[in-house]
Design brief:
Blueprint: H1 13-16, E1 18-25, E2 34-43, E3 49-57, E4 64-73, E5 81-87, E6 90-99, E7 105-109, E8 116-120, H2 127-139, E9 148-149
Antiparallel strand pairs: 1-2, 1-8, 1-9, 2-3, 3-4, 4-5, 5-6, 6-7, 7-8
């Protein structure tokens, strides 16, 4: 447990593109009061990835808030380590640390283990799948008890 954060061995970015639903996350200041969060990724003309994060503020039926940014790969051998920027010059590490074989779920972490998101292609996730993810998170040095489930 602990040590360096481990990413998945490889990510096919074309399969990763599209919309992901957040099913759980570690608490963070920039998503405070956010519900029904989504992240949509698409390829930009320059080869980087366009990112659109959206959520409902105040409750599941609240006003939609969106923020646009971009991501780029920083480790091309695996495509599992990216950087994301929403406000220049600030960026964050975006490491894909767990991924379903059919890209049905993804888990994104930060090397400091202070940020964590569990994403799904559907708005809900089977409890058994979530339990498996939580087990692997524990092995990768995260505390699944800190997750806020959506």
């Amino acid at each position: 447990m602990g040590g360096d954060l481990q990413t998945v061995p490889s990510v096919d970015l074309n399969r990763y593109l599209g919309t992901w639903y957040e099913v759980a996350r570690y608490p963070n200041r920039f998503q405070r009061d956010c519900f029904r969060s989504t992240a949509t990724y698409s390829l930009r003309e320059d080869g980087d990835i366009a990112v659109v994060n959206a959520c409902r503020r105040g409750g599941p039926d609240g006003e939609e808030k969106r923020v646009e940014g971009k991501a780029w790969v920083v480790e091309e051998t695996t495509n599992a380590k990216l950087r994301v920027r929403f406000f220049w010059p600030f960026w964050g590490s975006y490491w894909i640390i767990d991924l379903g074989t059919d890209y049905e779920y993804a888990v994104v972490g930060h090397p400091s283990r202070t940020y964590l998101w569990v994403l799904s292609r559907t708005p809900t996730m089977d409890d058994a799948v979530f339990a498996g993810i939580a087990h692997r998170l524990r092995l990768n040095g995260y505390d699944p008890a800190k997750l806020i489930r959506q």
